[in-house]
Amino acid sequence: MDEINQVEILIVEDNPSDAEIALRAFKKNKLTNKILVVEDGEEALDYLFCKGQYATNNKVSRPKIILLDLKLPKINGLEVLKEIKSHPETKIIPVIVLTSSKEESDIIESYQLGVNSYIVKPVDFEKFVEAVRDLGFYWLLLNQLPRL
Amino acid sequence: MSTNKDNLQFRIITLALLMVAHLIAFSSPDTLVAHNYSISYSTFDTILIGSEPDYPPYCIVDEDGQPDGFSIELFMAAAKAAGLQVKIKIGIWEVIKNELADGKIDALPLVGRTPEREEIFGFTLPYLKLHGAVFVRKDTKDIHSLRDLTEKKLIIMKGDNADEYARRMNLSEDIFNTNTFEEAFQMLANGEGDAVITQRVMGLRLLENMENNTIKPLDINLPDFRQDFCFAVKKGNQELLNQLNEGLSVVIANDTYQHIYFKWFGPAIKAELSTEDIVRVALFIFFPLVIIMVVLWVLVLRKEVKRRTRRLRNEITNHKNTWHELTLKQEKLAASEDQIRLLLDSTAEGIYGIDNKGDCTLINKSAIELLGYENDSEIIGKNMHILIHHTKADGSRYPIDDCAIYNSFIAGKRTHVDTEVLWRKDGSSFPVEYYSYPIQQDEQVVGAVITFWDISDKKRTEKELLKLTEELELTVEKRTAELNEKVLKLDKSQQAMLYMVEDLNRITAELKNERRKLELSNKELEAFTYSVSHDLRAPMRAINGFSNFLLEDYADKLDQEGRRYLDTIKKNAIKMDKLITDLLSLSRVTKADLVYTTVDMQQMAKRAFEDMATTNEKQEFIFEVKNLPSIKGDATLLTQVWQNLVGNALKYCSKASVKNVEITAKDAKDEIVYKINDSGAGFNEKYKDKLFGMFQRLHRDNEFEGTGVGLAIVKRIITRHGGRVWAEGEVGQGARFYFALPKQL
Prior knowledge:
The structure holds two protein chains of two kinds. By secondary structure, chain A is of the alpha/beta class. Chain A is built from seven helices and five strands; from the N terminus they run αβαβαβααβαβα. Chain A has a single domain, classed as Rossmann fold. By secondary structure, chain B is an alpha+beta fold. Chain B contains 19 helices and 25 strands. The longest helix of chain B is centred in the C-terminal third of the chain and has 99 residues, at 456-554. Chain B is rod-shaped. Chain A binds chain B through residues 15, 17-18, 20-21, 24, 71, 99-103, 121, 123-126, 128-129, and chain B through 530, 533-535, 537-542, 544-549, 570, 574, 577, 581.
């Protein structure tokens, strides 16, 4: 339980391969170990709001950043984003959408819902890794996170 | 007046002479003695005179019964001066008069001198002049002159001068005598007579004494009743007469007379009482006064004359001014008249004026001309209805009583007629339009003014118009009939059209339906595309990724061949991904609606280069974009076009020694042709038709990689814009790609 509470990065990704690549990117660049991967939207919300299998005494769990894929089973990414950004306790957590969708509609909707960053997953694996590393450096090191 | 003056002179001379005579007599009594005069000083003779009891203020009786009065006193004085003593007896006039005549008495103190009496009495100088008057009751209105007395009853004292006068003058038939004037007045007051004639002064005194105020003297002059009063003696008694004269003269001379006069009359009595006083007054007061008055009068007259003269002068000046003004006004009037005449003659309409009888009083030039005369003398004064207005347009006679002009101006109204004709001098007529206005002066109609003009042209035009109208109506009828036919035909067509429209509507509905279906399938396609873009790519990434992981982590466990296999896997994954991207693009091109804006092609081409070229390429390449004109098109799609074309240019120059890309444009009337010229590998024109085909490549993959979709996309986009694409090239010498876009959408 402590480990979970110390989660620094929450990755919401249904594709295990993509998830693994991302994990590898963070690890390789020695950004952090405290990463939790959830595979659908429901689980993501459960974790964040300490419900279901993640029920605790706390009201919310607050990772440092959330990496969010849009195409998710059950509850899709935009809905999750909406939930996160509409609750005052979770609103302040930077959410970075990391998706293969380049659709303008997805981009606009995400920003309208208050996404902090939108990154299209490079198809090229190397570029993908680079992107993750970059965003990791940026959001965890350069960017000033609020103390939660 | 003149008689007075004569008398005055006479008296003065007489007086002077007497005075001189008296003085001489006193100085030499012996020498200057006339035969008729004898004066004795030593003995006082006594004489007896008579006196009336009631003839104030001359002879009266005082309270003691003694005789008194002016005449008495005077007589006494005169007698005394003459050395005579007097005894007086009282009696009524008639009696004492007769007694003197008879010699029973010696003298009378108060006798009026008349021609009759001169027969019987001797008179002294007159010492008194008395005037007579006619006394009447105050209410008597009908006596204004002596003539009026003729029918009246006169009351006069017997034997008085008045009596003799009245009888002498035959004043009236009816003369009643009384003994005294008191009686007479009493009778008059009682109404027993009409008038009393007597001395004025005496009468007034008597009335005063009687306390009578009902009788008054009239202002009638009795010219023959002016009497001198003297002392009288019996005729022949010259001695006494002389004595009395002497005494009287003395009395008069030594102011005794004055004294007595003043005593009895006061100073304010008329000249009858003391002629000398009066004379004196007249001399010293009256005449100077008269002279002063005359002078004043002259002065006043002079002033008056001056005033009048001044007034007259002013009047003359005024008249002159008025005259001047009138002259000016006349001139103005003349000028106005000229102006009016000028105006009248300058109008094109004929104007003439007529009087109440219908005769012409004025006429202007145009009227004369219109009526065919030479000058106004032929018309002025003639009756206009008879001259020019005698017959109607249809040839029937136009009686004057019916004349519209006449009837209207008689009624004080104006009229406007355009259905009549006027007749010229030569007997021809012309249709005319006229206005007639009555002329009013002081609310009376004195004539009329008629303005007219020839409307032959107008009438003719009207006729023509009528004819045209009729023709037009015929034509209209004909056309209407034709139109009706057409309308019927149109109706039929319309019906047909309506059916068509119904069909069209139906078809439109069907089309709409189809479109909806199409939209639906588009949406499905979109979803599909989305799915593809997501789901197809992900595995690619995994393949790529894990291949890399393998290489990274297990490279030492693999031999070269193994590594090559992994590479191949990677490459293929990448390629597949690109294909998918391109397919997605293509599908987007096909489905998307064009959003037309004015696209800055210059900017877009440059941007494409910026985006597509690597840092190295940017340095190595010479990339020129020359003045590309803007065009209307979908910005997103056209961006794609540039990216693809520029990307191609870059790719195919990568192996060339000269890396030149040049973009130009040409204005070709209805379209703009853009050209991208590269100095790259070029292509064999034999295969140029394949260039834009789907998945078509003219180079092997190991020469230049590619999916063969790029140009297909370009073609599809340009075609959707209504344009066209083509290319030229030579192997190894570069290629030129053209696309033309229409200016008008």
